[in-house]
Model the fold of this input.
Amino acid sequence: MHDFIYPSKEVQVGDSEVRKETLDNGLTVLLKEQHAAPVASFWVWYRVGSRNEVPGNTGISHWVEHMLFKGSAKFPRGAMDKAVSKHGGVYNGMTWVDWTTYYETLPSEHIELALEIESDRMVNALFDPQETETERGVIISEMEGNENEPEYQLYQETSAVAFRIHPYRQMVIGYREDLLRMGREDLYRHYRTFYTPNNAVVAAVGDFNSEEMLRKVNDYFGSIPKGPEPPSLHLTEPPQRGEKRVVVEGNEETAYLLALYHAPKANDPDFFPMVVADAILGGAKGLPPFGGSTSNRSSRLYQALVASGIAAAVRSSVAATVDPYLASIEITIRQGQSLEKAEKILDAVIQRLQEEPVGRDELEKAIKQSRAQFVYASESVTHQALWLGFSEIAANQEWLAGFLDRLSSVTAEDIMRVATKYYARRNRTVGWYVPQGGQA
Done:
């Protein structure tokens, strides 16, 4: 049994406290008891995603994530799935720009299985050469499927122009040339560099005793040696000095407009006003890459573009990230309408947000709906554990604990200020997807 090197810290999140500990090997542990049902969810988050990749190894974090489902000596391929399914549980994993995560949700009496699985694959994944080659084909096929979608093509090209130097310019799945070049040793080196306890966060929520769960986490993870500090990212995206534009020509019949605006990181005071501003523009929604959305029919962009017949659909988003990322607005142009006209209407909607205070009723509705999306996304123990770990990666537990209050404190003046600062033309990159021989 290993000792803890830091005293426990308790943070109020919702209606119960989160216990936070750090093991002597650097593993951060977040525990929240929730006794409404005999279920528990266990997540392990690693501070590695496309943000930690350089040209030549793009897509490697996502590929490594796939490989951790291919087995170890203790859990050969398929054994994890059988073990979790046998006890009526679910499990999965995912990679995004800032992180890679894995989880199991099980009846609480069997939650120790999750600790056994995750502690094992933190250090013992096999990376079988044949499995590696098979997965290369799977991922390239996935990429090709994405590249058949005009929205993906447009986002890939436009985000690459929006960022000059930051790795956020790369798609999580990576570039084809890198996926064809990398091999088993590249993947294994990445795994051993970033899959260390001092680069990981455990988040567990459910029907357990925190003291007992902490002992179990220490039993399973405490003996894993602390790794060297992973390479730090020392890149700061320089301010954009003027509007950038991208044109993508494609075979689809539909035209699309994408506007990407440099936006604040999660732990910036402007983040919550941007969430509310985004709700006013495009409707309230969960934070990417997790959330759904309410109907956006009353939002300003829907009324100006869809209700008027210019667009078939409009979507917007603001993401919570470690470094400043992008606020996006995507418009699907209706047949017979033009990209130019849609962009002029978008500009007018943005200008109004910058120059006219939002009315009290509209502001209160946007805040209420944004709060509701957060609450809906936190109902199950699985999603509560997701939020605990995600918040620790993107910001901290205080950020999560104050989420609803910070949304509620957003004012009309805040909306005008962030709209002027972030939704400025000089701060955006506009992409047009133009059907060959079609509308522009």
